[in-house]
Amino acid sequence: MPDEIFQDPRLAPVYDPLDPDRSDLDAYVAIVEAVDATSVLDVGCGTGTLACLLAGRGVAVVAVDPALASLDVARRKPYADRVQWIHGDATTLPPVAVDAAVMTGNVAQVFLTDDEWFATLRGIHGALRPHGWLVFETRVPSRRAWERWTPEFTRTTVDVDEVGVVEAWQELLDVDGELVTFRSMTWFERDDLLIESRSTLRFRERSELDASLAATGYNVVEIRDAPDRPGLEHVFVASRGR
């Protein structure tokens, strides 16, 4: 079940205005171009920013997400008509064959159990053509990014067309081993409405990710530093084995 911040019909439309800088996606566009991928599976596509960006460049994109409200936002973006949108996840895909698959943002960390993570990797593996590519990012646990998930560091305010002033912030709730739970608070000034969305992410170690990829038929080719958050995240580039 996706978090409210992605599936609530009041929250999904303000997701992009609250986080307008998506320069983090430039690295994914560059990798797609570098591996000559003409078709891409965007797993956990959210509001579709990357999917539409790639589609505008002539890439055939299949974009899947379990949050229908986010897909509704995505379908209204430029080049959305060139994307195949799927309401679901990587374990329930129709037959597809793509050159590359991507998971941006927090997507690789939302799978809290090993069963969920392995099933997702296997689902993606089945969608990739032989020697296709999987690219995803994940935060480095030792950098303890959650320590800055506080109102002091995360509060932002925007004036959204047809919505009015919206204020949002995050609050750390719990750290239990690899699992970090926080809540996202969104206040709509016009309606004096405060909506809470709780999320839990799993911070897997690099060695654990290496092992899971090997176990599900991938070869790790490279682990890069995220260009927009140096030292804070790993970007895994893996090829599909036979």
Task: Provide structural commentary.
The protein has 242 residues and is an alpha/beta fold. The chain has 2 domains: 4-140 and 204-240, Vaccinia Virus protein VP39 (Rossmann fold, 3-Layer(aba) Sandwich); 142-201. It is 26% helix and 36% strand. It is built from 8 helices and 11 strands. The strands form 2 sheets. It has a 7-stranded mixed sheet, sandwiched between helices. Strands 6-7-8-9 form a 4-stranded antiparallel sheet. Strand 10 (218-225) and strand 11 form a beta hairpin. The longest helix has 14 residues, at 114-127. It starts with a helix and ends with a strand. The model has no long low-confidence stretch (mean pLDDT 96).
What descriptors fit this protein?
242 residues, alpha/beta, Rossmann fold, 2 domains, seven-stranded mixed sheet, four-stranded antiparallel sheet, 8 helices, 11 strands
Quick synopsis:
With 242 residues, this protein is an alpha/beta fold. Helix content is 26%, strand content 36%.
